[in-house]
TrEMBL record:
Entry EC no(s): 3.5.1.28
Residue stretches spanning the membrane: none
Name assigned to this protein: N-acetylmuramoyl-L-alanine amidase
Catalytic activity: Hydrolyzes the link between N-acetylmuramoyl residues and L-amino acid residues in certain cell-wall glycopeptides
Cited InterPro entries: Amidase/PGRP_sf (IPR036505), Amidase_domain (IPR002502), NAMLAA_amidase_2 (IPR051206), Peptidoglycan-bd-like (IPR002477), PGBD-like_sf (IPR036365), PGBDSf (IPR036366)
Alphabetical list of PANTHER family matching this protein: N-ACETYLMURAMOYL-L-ALANINE AMIDASE AMID
Superkingdom of source: Bacteria
Keywords on record: Cell wall biogenesis/degradation, Hydrolase
Entry keyword Nuclease: no
């Protein structure tokens, strides 16, 4: 998990829900309704049943009050707050239109850019209602927050953030090898079951690289959202079966190493070697088994020894081939498997 490196002051409140129950997709900006420092803002959230993730004081310093991995009690709408990083901005005018200084707004833009980059938010979309991912407190309850002046600045903030975010293009294929970058790994790799999404705060862009890679390698058709959920776990399992790894759905060092070695057999590429012409089963030996092993290494980079012996590793590779091709998975290279293999010649 990670928080912004831009923070100048930390005062964590107990008024929060830990952990947040959804991925970070949004930013909600509020005003403090006061000309407060980050210290004064922190004191407020020790004394009220409310909180925010960050606050920007009247001098432009940034305070942290609720870690990003936790939900702040900010908008009274749990669905928004579980998805949003909430930011309070100090006013330099009390009452009236509740003016906010350019210094504070510019620091807010800096913070929003940082939040977006670390959490895989490619663009802030200000729609003027709660459907966008840049939201106001007043969308969720009857309140004047964020004040009439700050309301006029939301589109400006979104535009400035998006200018600095730019976009990350999806790599173009480079023959049979992946042309894009590979992810950095947390110490334990990426898991779904029992680990909790918050483990990966700060790794969303790396998870996007995994998703882009899987879409290229096995046509996984994943949404590239930086969320290591069920769909991504299932795609990782499919890739692991294809390359002869234990299909546990976790993306660790072994899966990363296999990804770097993997050569994709595009639809236009044909297998030029010989294929078995008879049914083969575990225990079979001979030249036809060697033909099978050569084909399987071409198909899935399984690294089989070409020894002509249909043992456990060859059986496992056949099962992976059958799973990938969505045919009967029995570990025997019979007529259905031979017919399926022929389409690659």
């Amino acid at each position: 998990m990670s928080n912004s490196s831009l923070v100048d002051y930390t005062d964590i409140t107990s008024h929060k829900t830990s952990p947040r129950m959804d991925k970070i997709r949004k930013i909600t900006i509020h005003h403090m309704a006061g000309n407060l420092s980050v210290e004064e803002c922190g004191e407020v959230f020790h004394n009220r049943d409310a909180s925010t993730n960050y606050g920007i004081g009247n001098d432009g310093r940034i305070g942290l009050y609720v870690d990003e991995c936790d939900r702040a009690w900010a908008t009274t709408d749990p669905d928004n707050d579980h998805q949003a990083i909430n930011i309070e901005l100090a006013n330099d005018e009390i009452g009236g239109n509740w003016h906010v200084s350019d210094k504070v707004i510019n620091r807010c833009i800096d913070l929003c850019v940082d939040i977006c980059k670390r959490n895989g938010i490619e663009k802030l979309n200000f729609t003027g209602d709660e459907s966008g991912n840049l939201t106001m407190h007043c969308y969720f309850m009857a309140t004047a927050c964020p004040g009439s002046y700050l309301k006029t600045k939301f589109k400006y903030i979104a535009d400035k953030v998006n200018e600095r975010l730019g976009s990350t293009p999806i790599p173009k294929p480079n023959g049979d090898m992946w042309a894009g970058a590979y992810p950095s790994l947390p110490e334990r790799g990426y898991y779904l079951t029992g680990d909790g999404y918050n483990t990966y705060v700060g790794y969303q862009n790396d998870i996007k690289l995994i998703q882009q890679y899987l879409n290229w390698a096995i046509d996984a058709k994943l949404e590239v959202d930086g969320y290591y959920g069920n769909a991504t776990t299932n795609a990782v399992e499919s890739f692991q079966r294809k390359v002869g790894l234990t299909a546990d759905g976790s993306y660790g060092k072994d899966t990363l190493s296999a990804a770097k070695k993997y050569k994709k057999n595009s639809a236009s590429k044909k297998y030029s070697g010989a294929l078995p012409t008879k049914d083969l089963v575990p225990g079979s030996v001979g030249l036809q088994v060697k033909d099978l092993q050569n084909f399987l290494n071409w198909y899935g980079n399984y690294g089989l020894e070409i020894d002509g012996s249909y043992g456990k590793l060859t059986t496992s590779a056949v099962k992976n081939f059958q799973t990938s091709e969505k045919i009967l998975v029995d570990g025997m290279f019979g007529i259905q498997s031979r017919t399926t293999a022929k389409k690659y010649t």
